[in-house]
Amino acid sequence: MIFRAVEDADLIRKARQGEVEAYNLLISRWEKRVYNYLLRIVGEREDALDLSQDVFLKAYQNLRKLDDPARFAPWLFRIAHNEAFSAFRKRRPEGETLGEGEFPGLDVPASGSAAFPIELSIAVTTALGRLNPEQREAVILKIYQGFKFEEMAEILECPVSTVKSRLYTALEVLKAQLAPLNSRGVT
Amino acid sequence: MSCSPFDLRDYLFGELAEPDRRQLEAHVHSCAHCNEDLERLRLTHSTLLALRDEEVPQRIGFVSDKVFEPSPVRRAWQSLWGSSPKLGFASAAMLSAALVIFAFLRPAAPTPTTDPAKIEQQVSERVTAAVAKAVNESEARQASKAAALLAAAEQRFEQEREGDRANMENLAQSIVVLQKQVNVSKSLLARASLEEPR
Fold first, then answer.
1. Radius of gyration of chain B (CA)
2. Would the ipTM clear 0.95, i.e. be above it?
């Protein structure tokens, strides 16, 4: 008997044929990543969960439009990005954008552990709050989601050079913000 | 300012190609300044990772509902379009069926004769017919050309005759006028001789 790991592409194919269970399995593989991405963007657990459900529903409805199943991750996060920013637009008056230092993630109580003390989590959340929304999203996609520049460009619908510029500017800000913490040897 | 041959941040994020990565590692190994820069970046990176992923508070899932499921026919159709091998097999089957049907339905092609005498006769007949046709066409062309030339010559001759006739009439009128002048002259001469004093 030969065991073969079920690939996302197999699940996508089956889900396209109407197999809901295959799609549920696909969700179970991606829900944590999508939820945490949205949580760091919108800053509210309840909103992040609602948006995650919307993202997976939209993805299911549009699964046929996905040309290359190997590009599922950037395609799914593109939907998540659109959902998150459309929720922002609904919440805020027209023309008003989320400014620097208004990171909603500040409302998320930071969770600590033995390896990562709560003080550090709070400091990181505060440092992320100093970034503008584009820079913050670039950091989230690269550092917390591990996407390649090319995939980030696909998700954010902008050139790779723009993605790099946002990320590297953010990194300079974060380096300066977290330097005192590092010099005290908190990590 | 870093003197590294490549961006240290690209290296940190695993965005460098293998040869570039090795070259940068060799440089960082020998350059204290770049080594320090890279360490600072690594420290920032690991500090950021202190913010851990949270568990999803509630599992996301969809319930299968017959109302939303496609019909068996549609599922079979979608399954066909979703699978390249199935689609390829179906295309090949349709092509084979089309070939078989065409083979049965097409009209029988005339069997070519292989007898040399017959072929020679056929060729000879075709050549004779072709020559006769060419001769007839040539004669017809010549006849039509001759008729056209004849008609043109007759027309020209008629025009010349008309011209001659007009000239003759003019000449006759001139003679009549001349005759009248002679007669007048004669009568004047006669009158003059009568009136001449003796």
1. 58
2. no
Give the largest CA-CA distance in chain B: 173
3-class secondary structure per residue, B21-77:
HHHHHHHHHHCHHHHHHHHHHHHHHHHHCCCCCCCCCCCCCCCCCCCCCCCHHHHHH
Residue A106 has a pLDDT of 44
Question: Which residues does A162 contact at the CB level (< 8 Å), separation at least 6?
Answer: A153, A156
Buried b (16+ CB within 10 A) or exposed e, B73-101: eeeeeebeebeeeeeeeeeeeeeeeeeee
Residue A25, classed as helix, strand or coil, is: helix
What φ, ψ does residue A40 adopt, rounded to 5°?
Answer: -75, -20
CB A149 within 8 A of CB A164: yes
pTM of the model: 0.61
The beta-carbon neighbor of A18 closest among B50, B61, B69 is: B69
Task: Say yes or no for a CB contact (<8 Å) between B50 and A149.
Answer: no
> Which candidate from B49, B53, B57 shows the least CB-CB separation from A49?
B57
B82 touches chain A (CB under 8 A): yes
**What pLDDT shows up at residue A93?**
58
Element (H, E) at A82: helix A72-91
